[in-house]
Amino acid sequence: MTTLDVPVRNIVGDIDKPRGGALAALARHSVALARRSLIKTIRTPEALIDVTLQPVIFLLLFTYLLGGAISGGDRHGYLQFLLPGMLAQSLAMGGIALGQNLNADIEKGVFDRFRSLPVARSAPLVGAVAADVVRYLTVCVVMLGFGMVMGFRVETGFLPAVAAVALSIGFGLCFCWISVWVGMLVRTSGAVQGVMFLLVFPLSFGSNVFVQTSTLPGWLQAFVHVNPITPLVGTIRGLLVGGPVAGHLLWTVVWMAALLVIFVPLALRAYARRA
Amino acid sequence: MTDLVVRAEGLRKRFKTTQALDGVDLSMRRGTVLGVLGPNGAGKTTAVRVLATLLRPDAGHAEVAGIDVLKEPQRVRRRIGLTGQYASVDEDLTGTQNLVLIGQLLDLTTKDARKRAAELLEWFDLADAAGRPAKTYSGGMRRRLDLAASLVGHPEVIFLDEPTTGLDPAKREDMWGVVRTQVTQGASVLLTTQYLEEADALADEIVVINKGRVIAHDTPDGLKRRVGGLTLRVRPADPARVPDTLAVLDRVAAPGTNASADATAGARPGAVLVPVTGDTALDEALPALRRAGIEVVDLGLQLPSLDEVFHALTGDHTDDTPAKEAELV
């Protein structure tokens, strides 16, 4: 080991004040931590399977294997109906990996280092969530791109399609806080997946993703109507293939706000307790 | 007592059924190394986590760099560096990326963070591996990167939780060099270790923790004295005079003990050991040997090893280091 003379202190100014104030510091730290997550994603592209290959397989499965039976033979019509719904389902599932990764980071002790640094308590979580934008954008691009190869057509226009993608990413960012919370609560990353599947499966299948709500028994319709995935699917469907948007959009935004209000504090508190 | 850079009083922490800390007091003077020794599960790591603001104690008070750990953790965090028990570097990030991230989180500008990262990587002999993901590093390299990460912010107080566990002896001594350098540059280091020789080599003072309580706090030599038992070691020039030497030294032996031939495995035969009560034994032994006409080529007074001290204090003789007779001399 060389003996370079490293001065012990050379920080000037008030070392007790974060540079540029608390909010600027939170933003800066979150960006730095988001970049860390992105580097990890780029280094392990196989971690993107759940937002690339997996939704494609689901799309193929439901369109070609089950689509004919569900729709009475009109596969193209069913694809137009299915794809916006499957986009919503993939977003909900796409958030699961985040909770798993955070859980693994905590187990490895990486977060101990972050917690011993003068950053806002929420920065590591906010940064990780922000980096997930890339995964949700990937889902949208892959689903729409592959869907178009299969014959899906946007029937509205470019701007509504962009709005659908933007809303999808926004919803993904709100929904994934559930996964973050579960990631802070359970002991292993495998358990995060287990718990989240228990939650995401009823939400994504007990919805209007695969079939018209009117075909369901009354009690199931009641569940579908209070399911946060339902208005999201309605909005995306309206924005991509036409139909009413405003009412669905309103409920989607309400749900997004509710998810943030409930699960961000829960996740932060669970994170603080996890020592 | 403004010169105390770590001051903790009555720290208590309970995890379900285990009382990890049961009223721990700690103090460390500025610019020194405090070694925290104790068997596994003694509470060493818990104490470090409390001082490094990672864990809130159930009771007690702690100040680091003169700042209350519980009331102003963010101010404490700007002054400390922490290296945990296992290397907590990010495996997917390169050496440079790991250190730059820490720098950014410490509010350095990106430019300064890069400069500091390059400086530390150079210093820790990691410059060649700076652009490689940490998962390609050897265990020793990861440890070094981990230690480098705790030094990014020029900390006043450095907490090292078993920093050399799992390192080979040469790498361990490199690490000791790093610790000493930091101290000569004004930092204070609190390190936990399971290697007694490490505490002996580095620490100005040693705290022994057992079952969540501090059972000793002293200098390494002070601790050794406390267990008592100085040993006088004499080697006559003529091995044939060992029996005479034994007879002479029996007269200066501590009450209830006798001189004996040094039967230590691996030691060159022909030396005599005798437990004595104090260093005045030397004044008696030398003239007595001279009167008996025994020529001596080697003579010395030895403190007990820290191993012995540790086992005597903790009452733990079933540890992985058996009470080696070799250490008695």
Task: Explain how this protein is built.
The complex is a heterodimer of chains A (275) and B (329). Chain A has 275 residues and is an all-alpha fold. Chain A has twelve helices and no strands. Chain A has helices spanning 22-43, 53-71, 75-94, 96-108, 110-115, 123-131, 133-150, 158-185, 189-205, 218-226, 229-241, 246-273. Chain A is elongated and about 70 Å long. In chain B, the strands form three sheets. Chain B has a six-stranded mixed sheet, sandwiched between helices. A four-stranded antiparallel sheet of chain B has the order 2-1-4-5. The relative contact order of chain B is 0.13. Chain B has eleven helices and 14 strands. In chain B, β4 and β5 (67-68) form a beta hairpin. Chain B has 329 residues and is of the alpha/beta class. Chain B folds into two domains: 4-221, P-loop containing nucleotide triphosphate hydrolases (Rossmann fold, 3-Layer(aba) Sandwich), CATH 3.40.50; 229-303, Alpha-Beta Plaits (2-Layer Sandwich). In chain B, α3 crosses α4 (110-123). Chain B is elongated and about 75 Å long. The interface between A and B is large, with 38 and 49 residues.
